[in-house]
Structure formats: C-alpha cells, structure tokens
Design goal:
VWF_type-D; 5-stranded antiparallel sheet; 186 residues; APLP protein; 2 helices
C-alpha cells in the first residue's frame, strides 16, 4: 500500500514488450483522480468520484462521449458499465474493474503478461525483491524515489481544456430524474 502524497500523474502499469495496455492514475483539479486506461487503440478515462467514463478511439481520432451505460465494444476492447461498476477487458488477458461505491479499482493480468509489465504496481513476475524497480532498471528501497520515478508529467496543476460533450436529450431527462436536488428519485 502506497500513500501518494504527490499531486502528479503516475504510471501504475504498462506492458513494455507488446504495448497491450497502459494504466495511469491522473491527478485532476479539486483533489480528485481519474484513471487513464489504454488498450488496442482505445482509451477509456474513468472518473470514479463522478461515476462517469469517456471512451476515445485512436484509429478514428474521435471522442465517443457516451457515458458507459451499455456494453461498448470494438473488435478488440470490451467495456461494460453497471450501476456502480465498470469493467474493461481485451482479448490479450487484461482486465480493469472499478467499483464506484468503494472507490476501488483492480487490474488483472493473464499469465502471458508475466514479467513484461512495470510501474507502481510492480513487475508482475512473482519476485518480491524487484517490485520497486525504477524505469531505468535499477532497484530502490525508497518509496519517495520509487513513486517519483513513475511520474508521467511535470505535475503542473493547470486545468485541462477539454471540449465538452454535447448533451443529449436522454442525458437531460436522466439529470432531471436522478440528479436534480428536488427529484424524489435522486
């Protein structure tokens, strides 16, 4: 268990041999975090506190602004959303699941990812002695050095300028029924 006191985005896990997946913990504004998950030309950004997700496809370079309320899949990545949980998987044996009620996410790797991934989640090779491997291949016993070595940005807290998704009629109705403070269904 690590206590990440830094306000930086960090690499949690990445397949450095086949580039099958990347998982980054991003620091957002107002002390919230998001997960950036990349698999097979598809990126899914998960915002646990907001209970929303956004999917992007690199091959078409278009943003799919749907909240993941149904099964969204392309030929190599599957994302499924339930009321308080999202699960993303690919055909290469990588699964990421987040439970929004408990702000708890897990990454599960199939056996053929043994020893080819690295990041704050370690080396995935069942060797306790090399779990704190730095990106340059050296090993440390200093938690601050270890966590700082896997930072993926310069830790600037400048708000990102994202183009907002267009609000659909379905989203407006859902907001009225389930998110408005005066709604009995909230």
């Amino acid at each position: 268990i690590y206590d990440l006191a830094s306000k930086c985005s960090v690499l949690l896990a990445k397949d450095f041999v086949h580039n099958a997946f990347t998982v980054i913990l991003n620091e957002e504004t107002s002390n919230s975090r998001s997960l950036y998950v990349e698999m097979n030309q598809t990126v899914i950004s998960i915002y646990p506190r907001l209970k929303i997700s956004k999917m992007y496809n690199f091959s078409s370079m278009e943003e799919n602004c749907q909240i993941l309320d149904k099964s969204l899949e392309n030929n190599t990545t599957n994302a499924r959303r339930e009321t308080n949980k999202i699960e993303i998987s690919n055909e290469k044996g990588v699964t990421l699941s987040c439970d929004f009620r408990y702000d708890f996410c897990t990454v599960t790797l199939a056996g053929w990812h043994h020893g080819i991934s690295a990041g704050l989640f370690g080396t995935n090779d069942n060797e306790a002695g090399n779990e704190w491997t730095l990106p340059n291949g050296s090993i440390t016993d200093n938690v601050q050095e270890f966590t700082q070595s896997w930072q993926v940005n310069k830790c600037s807290l400048v708000p990102k300028k994202e183009k907002p998704c267009p609000i659909t009629a379905k989203q407006i109705i859902c907001n009225v029924f389930f998110e408005e403070s005066h709604s009995l269904l909230r």
